[in-house]
Design brief:
The chain is an all-alpha fold and 264 residues long. The chain has helices spanning 2-13, 15-29, 38-57, 68-90, 92-95, 97-102, 109-135, 147-171, 175-189, 202-209, 214-224, 232-256, 260-263. Helix 8 packs antiparallel against helix 11 (214-224). The longest helix has 27 residues, at 109-135. The two termini are 29 Å apart.
Length: 264
């Protein structure tokens, strides 16, 4: 806990550098792009259209009571944030080796900047998500005010995993290749494209419930699609997964960061 408090204090003192890193990533991503930021709006819509066409027509997936397109997009928006942010975190230390080797820079600031940068794109993807909610007749409700809680927990979980990956990738380059496979498997083990109710075996449903990414996605869907207030169990699951991942990831990062220069 004391380490996290020191981290927050150091983060406050390094906020200018953090802003510059986020702004740099944002400019680099959309440099020489004709559509620019519009890709943040179009990409989730195009991906959802393709997946909805395949899974609703070929595999006959459905979500009784709610629009399958809205169901799919809510899951994709959350999972895509985790996927993109964790991937960028993984290479954040190695990509800035020249800066780390020349001057003192708080090393944890690089994974944090990646999560914040992808977070800006995440907020932009909420625009097409809400358009889909309105077009499909899903509508809005006052429970949407609870969504920042789920998004904050998703951010903490992603940051914790990002710390772990950033440290591991410095010492083991194979992590880049292994994590790509892990993400693909994780996508299919997370109820993004299907309703867990279609799985008949209670054991598999219980295993899916333990998936740390399922907690925030389920929370978001409970609010956005079903217009219900999540139960105390959903609040607790989001917080526990986020806090546990952040604690483990930041502790590993702290214990290994002094050795980064020797391996870069």
């Amino acid at each position: 806990m004391s380490y996290l408090l020191r981290l927050l204090d150091s983060l406050r003192r390094s906020r200018f550098l953090l802003k510059q890193l986020v702004a740099r990533d944002f400019k680099v991503k959309y440099k020489r792009s004709v559509l620019g930021v519009a890709w943040s709006l179009l990409y989730p819509l195009l991906t959802t259209a393709v997946l909805a066409l395949v899974f609703s027509n070929v595999f006959r997936f459905s979500t009784p009571g709610v629009s399958y397109v809205a169901y799919l997009l809510t899951g994709l928006v959350c999972f895509n944030y985790f996927s993109e942010a964790s991937n960028l975190c993984m290479s954040s230390i190695a990509a800035n080796y020249s800066l780390i080797g020349k001057v003192y820079v708080p090393k944890y600031i690089f994974p944090i900047s990646k999560c914040l940068f992808v977070g800006v794109n995440f907020l932009l993807t909420l625009i097409p998500l809400y358009l889909v909610l309105l077009i499909t007749g899903t509508g809005l409700c006052w429970q949407h005010l609870l969504l920042p809680y789920a998004f904050a927990c998703l951010f903490l979980f992603t940051l914790g995993v990002g710390f772990f990956l950033a440290a591991a990738a410095v010492f083991f380059r194979d992590v880049y290749y292994i994590y790509g496979i892990v993400l693909t498997l994780w996508l299919y083990l997370t109820p993004v494209m299907y309703d867990p109710a279609v799985i008949g075996q209670p054991l598999l449903q219980n295993l899916i419930a333990l998936n740390p990414l399922y907690a925030p996605i389920r929370f978001v869907r409970t609010v956005m699609l079903y217009h219900e207030t999540p139960g105390i169990g959903q609040f607790a699951a989001c917080a526990v997964h986020g806090a546990l991942a952040l604690a483990v990831g930041s502790l590993l990062f702290k214990r290994t960061q002094d050795k980064f220069v020797c391996y870069l």
